[in-house]
Design brief:
- The chain has 111 residues and is α+β, with helices and mostly antiparallel strands.
- It has three helices and four strands; from the N terminus they run E-H-E-E-H-E-H.
- It has a four-stranded antiparallel sheet with strand order 2-3-1-4.
- Strand 2 and strand 3 form a beta hairpin.
- Helix 1 runs antiparallel to helix 2.
- The mean pLDDT is 85.
């Protein structure tokens, strides 16, 4: 049985790909999670924003914030697919439990 964990991923995509391409990438991403029994909990397209560091493609990127529940297979597939797809500039995934426990520790220190 696969252990399901909750994750949050921030993605930065190339800007100006066109809505059709973004829709296809959205469907692809969701499929990478759901094809392995995972579940998308939240998908937020945050639009184009300035990058903190200028890279070869310019100084802007399209940001997505995704919360999902999955096992390791879906996480591995998603990470592999984003690494080989040139439209994904950067991504970072964290376990939501890790984020919550860090916030709780910070709140305890501040109290």
């Amino acid at each position: 049985e696969t252990t399901m964990r909750e994750y949050e991923t921030m993605l930065i995509l190339k800007p100006n790909l066109g809505e059709e391409k973004y829709q296809k990438l959205t469907e692809d991403f969701k499929g990478w999670v759901t094809n392995f029994g995972g579940e998308i909990l939240k998908f937020e397209d945050m639009g184009e924003k300035e990058l903190t560091k200028t890279c070869l493609i310019g100084d802007r990127g399209r940001y997505w914030l995704v919360e999902f529940k999955s096992g390791n297979e879906a996480l591995d597939e998603m990470n592999h697919r984003m690494k080989v797809n040139e439209n994904f500039l950067r991504h970072m995934t964290v376990k939501i439990e890790s984020v919550r426990s860090t916030k709780e520790k910070t709140e305890d220190v501040e109290s």
